[in-house]
Write a structure and sequence with these properties.
The complex is a heterodimer of chains A (399) and B (105). Chain A is of the alpha/beta class and 399 residues long. Chain A has helices at residues 7-17, 33-43, 57-70, 80-95, 120-123, 138-153, 182-189, 213-245, 270-283, 301-308, 328-336, 360-374, 389-395, and strands spanning 2-5, 22-25, 50-53, 75-78, 101-106, 131-134, 161-166, 175-178, 252-255, 262-266, 288-293, 295-297, 313-318, 345-350, 382-384. Chain A has 2 domains: 2-245, Thiamin diphosphate (ThDP)-binding fold, Pyr/PP domains (Rossmann fold); 253-395, Rossmann fold (3-Layer(aba) Sandwich). Chain B has 105 residues and is an alpha+beta fold. Chains A and B meet through helix 8 of A and loops of B.
Chain lengths: 399, 105
């Protein structure tokens, strides 16, 4: 069934179709509509779930852990400062190997306060042991939301997952979305079976125990193994989803890659703009390709190596910044190729922070610098695009 | 038992007894049974609890307390396997019947 829904509703529908049983959530812009929509589903009798009202995001994720440890399917949603407030608890969810799925309305962090889109919030949680998926459209938000449960709950994995949908560009934008039939989703993800030890008075166990120095590293190594294994499981689930629902997903989605000399690497909604931009460049005979990262954790190292080894310039276009180094994706891509003989020149383009539009003009600037690099000219490794540099240099007393 | 489980779950509960916290001790409490008035304050305050209490003839048989101490029940005895040497019993004892001496290892 085709429906016209906002990105937040995609996440809410994913939870409904996955028959999530407990939703502890605290509202925050731009994700508020997720708990609102779920409350509506429950009030209308369309969804059989417990909605837990909490006093903060810290409590929301803590309640999610409690519920998941009890052995039910759990979902929650947040964004930006809310996700940052969850920070310490995120490690507990992944360390306890609980397959919680969380929708994130990717939003910038204060200061200055800003409610619009960038990927800083999820990137800041990169090392918490959660899988990370980024949606390009509302359809992807829904599909990845459903698939995230299959992947997270897989007996081989047992890791929590975040599904990012760009603030406003997706969360509040109405798009046509193909809503799968409940029966088909039931067949796809199946009845919830916790493949982990749960809180059960019949079988007492200690969850959230102490780990001494002689054991702690082994638990962390287990998480490492699970995240590495997730690559194969994600591919399997994406494949099965395509067979059942007809929509194709890849951890790295390649387009226009044949003979490509310059490749733009994107995440989230900016991919749609970039695709049209690249299509036009191809029409002009320019050898430009596009790679969309759907999965950031686990990082698709092997795929990126194979796709980019013969490319001249890999231009990472990203909506996050690690001050003192560069963008997170750029850093990881550069590290991916650190020990390779054949590699592209890797450049970083910081764009669209705090909801600044990413337009063809932005991408033209990116390609202009990439073309210079292709010709062997000297260019910066980290490039800030669409920034009034003069005003900043004045404010910093440098002009 | 395998100590490495997924998610650091302990599937055999009640195994904290295997963790002999007595090894942490720097100072050791020693009960002087001649001074002890059997008030049970140390037993009540011990946070572990590492002070064992024997009330009757039955439990008396199990206690490692010296024979002369057992002439008067109830009797308390320190469980050195788990006593961390916090000194609370020594601090609380109203008749100074507990000595607190440097552990010799």
């Amino acid at each position: 069934m085709k429906v016209m829904i906002r990105g937040n509703e995609s996440i809410a529908y994913a939870f409904k179709l996955a028959r999530v049983k407990v939703i502890p959530a605290y509202p925050i812009t731009p994700s508020t509509l997720v708990p609102e929509k779920i409350s509506e589903f429950i009030a209308n009798g369309e969804m059989d779930a417990e909605f837990v009202t909490v006093e903060s995001e810290h409590s929301a994720i803590s309640a999610a852990i409690g519920a998941s440890a009890h052995g039910v399917r759990v979902g929650t949603a947040t964004a930006s400062q809310g996700l940052a407030l969850m920070h310490e608890v995120l490690f507990i969810a992944s360390g306890m190997r609980l397959p919680i799925v969380m929708g994130i309305g990717n939003r910038a962090l204060s200061a200055p306060i800003n409610i619009w889109c960038d990927h800083q919030d999820m990137m800041a949680e990169r090392d918490t042991g959660w899988m990370q998926f980024y949606a390009e459209s509302n359809q992807e938000g829904l599909d990845l939301g459903i698939m995230a449960y299959r992947i997270a709950e897989d007996e081989r994995i047992l890791l929590p997952a975040m599904v990012g949908i760009d603030a406003f560009v997706l969360t509040h934008t109405v798009e046509p979305v193909e809503l799968p039939e409940q029966k088909d989703v039931d067949d796809f993800i199946g009845e919830f079976v916790p493949h982990y030890v749960t809180l059960d008075p019949e079988k007492p166990a200690t969850l959230g125990s102490f780990g001494f120095p002689e054991h702690y590293m082994e638990f962390k190594y287990g998480q490492w193994i699970a995240m590495e294994r997730a690559k194969k499981v994600i591919d399997e689930v994406f494949q099965e989803f395509e067979e059942r629902f007809g929509r194709k997903y890849k951890r790295v989605y390649p387009e226009f890659m044949e003979d490509a000399e310059i490749v733009l690497i994107t995440m989230g909604s900016m991919t749609s703009t970039t695709r049209e931009f690249v299509r036009r460049l191809r029409a002009q005979g320019k050898k430009v390709g596009l790679l969309k990262l759907t999965t950031f954790r686990p990082f698709p190292k092997e795929e990126l190596k194979a796709l980019l080894k013969d490319v001249k310039v890999a231009a990472v276009v990203e909506r996050n910044i690690s001050f003192g180094f560069g963008g997170a994706v750029y850093g990881e891509l550069a590290a991916t190729f650190a020990n390779e003989e054949r590699k592209p020149r890797i450049l970083d383009f910081i764009v669209g922070l705090g909801g600044r539009d990413i337009t063809f003009k932005t991408l033209e600037e990116v390609v202009k610098i990439a073309e210079k690099a292709e010709k062997g000219e000297d260019v910066d490794e980290v490039n800030w695009i669409d920034v009034n540099k003069e005003a900043v240099l004045k404010a910093e007393g440098l002009l | 038992m395998d100590v490495i489980t997924r998610g650091a779950v302990i599937i055999e509960p009640g195994n904290s007894v295997e963790n002999k916290t007595g090894t942490w001790r720097v100072f050791k409490p020693i009960i002087n049974y001649e001074k002890c008035i059997r008030c049970m304050i140390c037993w009540e305050f011990c946070p572990e609890p590492a002070i064992l209490r024997y009330d009757d003839e039955e439990t008396k048989k199990k206690t490692p307390a010296p024979k002369e101490a057992l002439k008067r029940l109830p009797v308390v005895e320190i469980d050195y396997d788990y006593c961390k040497g916090c000194g609370i019993c020594y601090n609380e004892c109203p008749v100074k019947a507990i000595d607190f001496v440097k552990e010799e290892k």
